[in-house]
């Protein structure tokens, strides 16, 4: 039987778009005003610091992806550094991220639209469903089409953010930046922790390694240039939000809409709505891409049911994973429609999963890289940052622990089942 393989079609340009899409979420619509409201003008410093601190993580992931270009992504690095069981445990922990986090991203974008143009709860769920279904269908068709769509979407997002910044510049006042530290330095630290979660998602690009045309070069280019673009966008929006004083308790949600409306009038509201839809879609799209490949690779290694280790015969995509994800997404949307839970509360769990995955990855890097390698020191710095942020996780710290326990039980049962089968095969039939 011929070994199935993913199709190599992703270029570095498409990789940059997927990177930006994986990291840049709906947070850019509201977080600059939330952090400004908390820390005042000094929140700009928080954005600059966290932008800089994101690069050690990016550098470490780029180095590991070059060493081990596998669809397993971070789970493959952990397996190489430690063992298959540790990799499998990380894979089970990651199950608590995208299946829950992605529908929440879609709902967040839909809720932003609801805030600007009030719609029914069913309308919010409907918009989220359209975003999710569109992404899943594109991914079933193939990564080549999906990545081209990502390039288009990111170009639109970049253009709209540039418009927001440019039309706001004339309204920026230096007086808005004084006093710079209004609420004390502790508020800057607290804002930095919130901002950190705007810089997660890099690890969702590494599972696409088997689909890059030149993974050794293009993944690094995609991650670094993507990180630069994202940092510029975040810092620029934060700067004009503070400079025009487009924040405060009443302005937190619609701050970006206020920014654009300052220069373009009422049309700014429509532009922001389009931006919210595109940002939500790009985040959903990129994260589904990486996660579906990771699950496929884990199933290929025997860590998940073999059902997920099959690719579509024509499109060479992990269709079975994508269809199951669609089912889970539907359940999350139905649950939201019935229970109306707090999305911020739900998102805390997946956020901690991302931090946990970084801790696993950085520990793997410390073992795989040599101390003389600058990559080792990048991994060490990243590990310190991640542990610091992890300490602020509160109740959500138990989320990855529970998932690892469930994964451990599955691994033990799977091993026991394999042992019984092998024993039966090795035992000669009685005559």
TrEMBL record:
Recorded GO MF terms: transmembrane transporter activity
Compartments (UniProt record): Cell membrane
Ranges that cross the membrane: 12-32, 44-65, 86-109, 115-138, 150-172, 184-202, 223-247, 267-290, 321-339, 351-369, 374-390, 396-413
Keywords, comma-separated and alphabetical: Cell membrane, Membrane, Plasmid, Transmembrane, Transmembrane helix
InterPro entries for this protein: AA/rel_permease1, APC_superfamily
Species in which this protein is naturally found: Bacillus thuringiensis subsp. tolworthi
Coiled-coil features, chain-numbered ranges: none
Pfam families reported in the protein's UniProt record: AA_permease_2 (PF13520)
GO CC annotation terms, alphabetical: plasma membrane
Name this polypeptide is given: Amino acid permease family protein
Membrane-topology descriptor: Multi-pass membrane protein
